[in-house]
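Researcher: For the record, we're logging two predictions in this thread. I'll number them. Prediction 1 follows.
Model: Prediction 1, sequence and structure:
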Amino acid sequence: MSISLVAGLGNPGREYEFSRHNLGWHVVDAYASKHGLSWKDAPQFESIVARRDLAPGRALWLLKPLTFMNGSGRAVSAFSRYHRIPAEDVAAVYDDLTIDLGLAKISVTGSDAGHNGVASLLEHLGDGFARLRLGIGPRRPPEMDLKDFVLARFTQEQLNLIQQNTDTYVQDLELLIGSGPTLAMNKLNRRDNP
């Protein structure tokens, strides 16, 4: 089991750029930038994609669906079918309300936990894909509507925290790509929380 496709979940459009729901895009962008990768339009997959050659005969694809969050699975499954990438070789990078801001976890199975992008992946791709879950919690104020909260922009203080943690998020992603989900999960999920 080796990761061949990393899908960063988010919403296209400038108005969503610094929203909580676009943290997955931010991290995949940071990974692409670190490795000097360029994004290309892939309209047949309703996405933009980048490619990195990890080793002879081993390509890693990065994908950002342009379908809006609720249609993420459509784009990811179309791309993975075309390139014959099974679900277990796919990693999704996305925001998770159940994890505190600044922290990240890796998992492989589980429900969508109310996340529409993950629900769409489960529907179109099936279960078994790896997940790099980036904390955006807790919801404050707690009575705020979930949709309003995830689509709202980070505060400046929160953005500063994300900037400080971006390198760590990219390292977490590299660990997942390099070691596979099981080893990465054991290492990352046991890491002492700050």
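Researcher: Logged. Prediction 2.
Model: Prediction 2, sequence and structure:
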Amino acid sequence: MRARTVSRLLAIFASAFSISAMPADHAESPATDADTAADIADVFIFASPDATKLVGAITFGGRPAPRSRIDGSFYCDPDVLFTYNIDRADASGGFDNVADFKVLIRFGKNRAGQCGIQLESVPGTSQTISGPIELELPGSNGLRAFAGLRNDPFFFDFEGFSALLNTFATPGQHGDLVSSFRLGGGQPRRDSFAFRNVSAIVFEMNIDTVAPRSAGGTRPKVRVWATTSRFAG
């Protein structure tokens, strides 16, 4: 992108995520919540089953419980730039909160109105990964990417949370986690986000590029966060 274009990008939302602290973000200010195609829900990073890759993911466009709307279509907005930031810990285990890697993600549409995705600067490959949404897209060095509408992976018991708040309102109570969230007696858990669709971006990265092993055989911690920017022209 040209410098003048970058200067016209208006950053509207940022969500922080780290390995040691895992906040989720599902309730926004009215202005951010109204821009569904750029409203990030969650940011994920985890190792692949064979521990040779890292998997990064951004979900966006979903609606938090207890709202009843279930997204029925993928939010494909060519004017939104997603940036997946990765900060690798230094030798002392500290973070400087400056991204060591930035994966740039954008969507586009062809003349038929079909949506496609493009990912640049994916750790482990110098090539761009691109193609239609709802398909597994191959990249170089065995890396893959995907974008599409999927069930929201975030888990939260909104009914239990409401019950917990009510226990604080009772004189002499200081919060009853066990009964509010049905933690005793083998009761089934409640997931307020079950069967709620969300737009998702998922991609693989080379683990040795992002977090190479030290001489002692350990890997550094990483911290990730994502931002969205909208073209304001």
